[in-house]
Structure prediction request, 162 residues.
Amino acid sequence: MAHANPELIQALRRTAQKLSSGNPYQWGHMGSCNCGNLAQELTQLSKAQIHEFAMQGRGDWREQVEEFCPTSGLPMDLLIADMLNHGLTTSDLQNLERLSDKKVLARIPLERRDKMRHNYRDDVMLYLNEWADQLEEELLPNIKLDLSFMNEEKVETKLVAI
Prediction:
């Protein structure tokens, strides 16, 4: 499961928002599918660049992730490595492409979950938002705030007219 961090959580939310606002979505296009849209957000590459990188390899995202080699130097492997550096795992990418992570799906009401399709924009947006919520819930208990400054005596200042 992904390493919960604010940057990844925001990227998931921005990806869902952009899809909601009409960002290109085409499940069969490596640069504008589920993973392709998140890759655009994390790497700042265009859908065309991502698709071009993917076409140098074989298969869809699931297959390319299975064949991922961090030392190959292939553009798609470099792109996947960049996404992993943002806290994702290879399993996360495979699950995103098929909307299949059981923990994320368990958060979605059964009647909605049973009707989800991995290649339907609205279902992808729902999945991304639920995943972001899940990661945020994992992250929040680990955040410690130093509020000791609130216990210090208030320093009173006076303005003196000269």
About this structure: Residues 121-139 form the longest helix (19 residues). Residues 25 and 32 are 5 Å apart (CA to CA). The mean pLDDT is 91. The two ends are 64 Å apart (CA to CA).
